[in-house]
Amino acid sequence: MKILLTRPLHDFALMELRKRYDVEVHKGKVPMPKRLLLSRIADKDGLICYPYDRIDAEIMAAAKKLRAISTFSVGYDHIDTRAAAGRGIVVSYTPEVLTGATADLTMTLILDILRRASEGDRLIRSGRWKTILGPYEFLGSDLSGKTLGILGMGRIGTAVASRARAFGMKISYHSRSRLPASREKILGARYVTLDRLFRESDVISIHAPHTPETNEMVDMKILRKMKRSAYLVNTARGKIINERDLVVALRTGVIAGAALDVFQMEPTGPANPLTRLTNILITPHIGSATSETRRAMAEMAVRNLVLSLSGKKPVYQVRAG
Ligand code: DGY
Fold this sequence. Notes:
By secondary structure, the protein is of the alpha/beta class.
């Protein structure tokens, strides 16, 4: 069987794949240009892809032999899962193994934005730290006693809740489905409506998947519900936020600040007006980027593909949407 990887993966993973398949690895431009992908996928049985590869119906139509798509990510909004289901292509993904790393980064962002750590770093590096800071200067906020509002209480949202509890935060959440009461009790989490979540939280952290329903759901209308002292954190998908509205909200004091690991368009850079604001912390989509986690993701992406191509159920199969 022939498989295609749209980007190189760890050596151990490639070795595993080469034991079983005829493996083609795209080593050029990232993401793999669509025309190239269309031509290279034509004779492949399996595909390993990444969140920035758009695997749409056109790609699948060109991939006459394709039986399995394994994405190196927990998000799968880049794959047309309905088209895949229609063609009997099994789609798999890598949740669970990256939960801890993504929750840790979320806490990093919450701590940093509330305590202004990166802002302080920029202050020193730019030579603007002139006097020893006094009792009213460069103040942040305590996490303890603040309400963290979690939008999307899946694996990552839950992991963030338990970490935030250890910092003394109160947890509210809104999700497609409510957790069982016993789980809510363990997490100390309170289910609230979307409206209350945005009105009452001191920090909102997004952990929902990107779907047609969540696309740009965080717009000016919902940002205006937030407290002026509140912060927005996003380690899920950039497209869940209307970035233009967020820029205005941050510029005009509708909310106090934001910390983002994900953006509408990635990679992003100085042309993005977000980068010119001071009350924002930005990181380059590194939620799962630890060596341990990326290794575990590679292992899982390989296992998923091998199982799917041998006609078995992958460890984590995407339900057709
Ligand atoms: C994911 O897994 O979906 C992350 O966003 C990419 O590492």
